[in-house]
Amino acid sequence: MVAPLQNPPHPKERRLLFANLARPDFTNDIACSLKHGGYEDLKKAIKMKPADITAEVKTGAVRGRGGAGFPCGVKWGFIRPDNTKPVYLICNADESEPGTFKDRYIIHQDPHQLIEGMVISCFAVNAKLAYIYIRGEFPEGAKILEKALDEARTKNFLGKDILGSGFDCEIYVHRGAGAYICGEETGLIESLEGKRPYPRIKPPYFPAALGLYMCPTIVNNVETLCHVKHIIKMGGAEYAKLGRPNNTGTRVLCVSGDVMKPGNFEVEVGAVTMGELINDMCGGLKPGRKLKAIIPGGSSAKVLRADERFKLKSKDADGNPVEKEIGIEDIVLDFDTLAAIGSMAGSGGVIIMDDSRDMVETLANLNEFYAHESCGQCTPCREGSLWMKKITARMVEGHGADSDTATLKSVADNIAGKTICAFGEACAWPTQSFVAKFREEFEAKSKPTAVAGDGHHDEPTESEIALAGVEQ
Amino acid sequence: MSMQVPADFEAKIDAVILRYPVSKRSASLPLLHLWQERFGYISPYAIEWIAAKLELEPINILELVTFYPMFRQKPVGTCHIRVCRTLSCAMAGGYGLMKQLCEKTGIERPDHPDHHDPIAVSSDGKWSIEFVECLASCGTGPVCMVNDDFHEAVSPEKIGELVAHYEEK
User: Fold this and answer.
1) Contact, A402 vs A447, CB < 8 A?
2) pLDDT: is A459 or A398 the higher one?
């Protein structure tokens, strides 16, 4: 049902993971995969020492593509060398960060690439049992993966004594059931244990130490696991030449919103700027429209305002610190630059908004998402996300109150940093950044504008006022 | 409340449990999916049966059904529609898609459905609909699912065709 990517690669693209995805002659069965070099890298890896594979991945320095950007090889290295418990590997295919739509295409159109990357990774960390945790809303993707795993089993790429190496490995598909929080790795693990996906507190529950069934567990994103295959193919040092130092490899940017040609673009990390992405690769904005805002790394990333100036610190040729100021179109799309300007590369989901968009409505949409998806375990997040949703919903309907802008900021400030998992930040950052950067729009709606006497005007309650005052 | 669980269904369930050699409890979600696919929704009997099968207390299963949005405790229409509500689809016309789908299928959906019971069903039981959060196809919005089928870029002119397609089923 998913249409193949129609666009041939843009000249600025560098397709590793998506190399087979736009080809009309490429199908997702194992025969086609084998014809195009599928499982050759597994054959190579299975003859290596597991520690050498990990070393290559460390040299390749690929950073996790799920959101946090943590170096994959370092994560693997957290498994204690003296560990005697079974090790598990989980592929996080819960793709659910709004604005992100890359894993769907890999799973549907090139599932064997993922399976190959997983078996190599399992061999490297000595995991004999692995699961692909795929979001419940991908029923067709789950079927495609089941079929691909069966095919891999018949070819002995999976199962007992893989390719005569003596290594046994089994992978199963596990479907989620519609909860965003399952993308958080410890929530995912709880879910895979058959429980509500309440994230675990870290420390002590770092998955590499106490993960699935309290055993060392590696959780990696679909895209990250695919990169492992390419690191083995190219060698870590060669792979690390792609992209920029500390921002190596390629990554898939998912562009949606107000551009002429939204879609996926696989580029070397940091090879394009925001301006090039929008104007060259996505065909620019819609006719007559001006850029207003960009969410650069999935809905949780802090929003950027089109006329904002960003200060970047770097060093000149002599090593002296220099500061330069750039505009939104000059932002280099890599992990470090987006972090330096106060947002994040996150999951690669870039949402473009033009001047037809109302920022209060936009935030109201996101707040409804986060209120729906808060797992409810921590009070600041459970109460705060719902509270922020209620405020922005009534502002949109013309029932704002004078204190709303301040209350929004205060509630968000009291969630971030005060929860067990990063969902707290994920739900606070949009509100914090939208309110700070588009304050005039929020203040304009922080007063009742609906027709008087319709009975809907919500004055803030006493407890709301009291709580909002805490930080003021 | 008891019913005979078909043998072929139980065999399928037993096969799935084997995928979780460390803990049968891990099979809770897969079993709920299998039950819902077969019988349409999770009944009180389903909760008792699955709990017994996995040697758990019924509350261990009920707490999953009430948490995970995809599980439902009431029947839905023969054609169940999920419309993506989240930002990129909303910007591409997701709310309009919801409105028009309701009109074309004769579903009366409240503007603010109960959070715990978000599904609206047509009076003839043929159709049901709900908003869901991001379906991960933000570049081709607005998107929706009808049962397990995914539909992208459902522009207003395509809605009639989409409904007609399932009307025949």
Assistant:
1) yes
2) A398
Asked if residue A271 belongs to a domain, the reply is yes
Q: Which of A431, A331, A346 is nearest to A380 (CA)?
A: A431
> Can you tell me the mean pLDDT for A228-247?
96
pLDDT recorded at residue A455: 44
Structure tokens at A58: 């460390």
Structural domains of chain A, count: 3
Could you tell me if residue A4 is inside a domain? no
Asked whether A169 and A122 are in contact (CB, 8 A), the reply is yes
Angstrom distance (rounded) from CA A375 to CA A370: 10
Domain final position from A296, A322, A354 = A354
SS3 A16: coil
Q: Which residues from B are below 8 Å from A357, CB to CB?
A: 91
Query: A463: which 2 tokens?
Result: 């407890």
State which CATH number among 3.30.300.130, 3.20.20.450, 3.40.30.10, 3.40.50.450 fits the domain covering B79-167: 3.40.30.10
Please tell me whether the interface predicted TM-score (ipTM) of this complex is above 0.95: yes
Domain stop point among A295, A329, A354: A354
Q: Which amino acid is at A323?
A: E
Structural domain includes residue A8: no
Round to whole Å and give the CA distance between A203 and A191: 19
Q: Write the pLDDT tens digit of every residue in B75-89.
A: 999 999 999 999 999
Interval A338-363 mean pLDDT = 96
Is there a contact between A178 and B29 if contact means CB atoms under 8 Å apart?
no
In a domain, A2, yes or no: no
A135/A125 Cα distance (integer angstroms): 25
Angle (CA) A442-A262-A434 rounded to 5° is 15
> How many angstroms separate the CA atoms of A388 and A380, rounded?
11
Residues A99-150: pLDDT tens digits? 999 999 999 999 999 999 999 999 999 999 999 999 999 999 999 999 999 9
Tokens describing residue A462 = 């006493």
Determine which of A88, A174, A354 to mutate to test the interface with B (most B C-beta atoms within 10 Å): A174
* Nearest in space to A310 (alpha carbons), one of A323, A295, A296, A294: A323
Consecutive H or E run containing B10? helix B7-17
The DSSP line for A137-198 is T-HHHHHHHHHHHHHHHHTTSSBSSGGGSS--BEEEEEE--S-GGGGSHHHHHHHHTTS--P
**Phi/psi of residue A405, nearest 5 degrees:** -60, -45
pLDDT exceeds 90 at position A341: yes
Across the interface, whether the CB atoms of B133 and A372 are under 8 A apart is answered yes
Question: What band does A471 get if pLDDT is binned at 50, 70 and 90?
Answer: very low
Question: Which of the given ranges, A7-21, A223-237, B112-126, has the highest pLDDT on average?
Answer: A223-237
pLDDT, tens digit (0-9, with 9 covering 90-100), for A51-62: 999 999 999 999
Beta bridge partner(s), residue A217: A88
- For chain B, say whether A183 makes contact (Cβ under 8 Å): no
Q: How confident is the model over A84-101, as a mean pLDDT?
A: 96
Determine contact, residues A107/A93, Cβ cutoff 8 Å.
yes
Of residues B25, B30, B137, nearest to A193 (C-beta):
B25
Query: pTM of this prediction?
Result: 0.94
- Average pLDDT on A412-436 reads 97
> Is there a contact between B88 and A368 if contact means CB atoms under 8 Å apart?
no
**Counting one residue from A and one from B, how many pairs have CB atoms under 8 Å apart?**
150
Full residue range of the structural domain in which residue A213 is found: 30-244
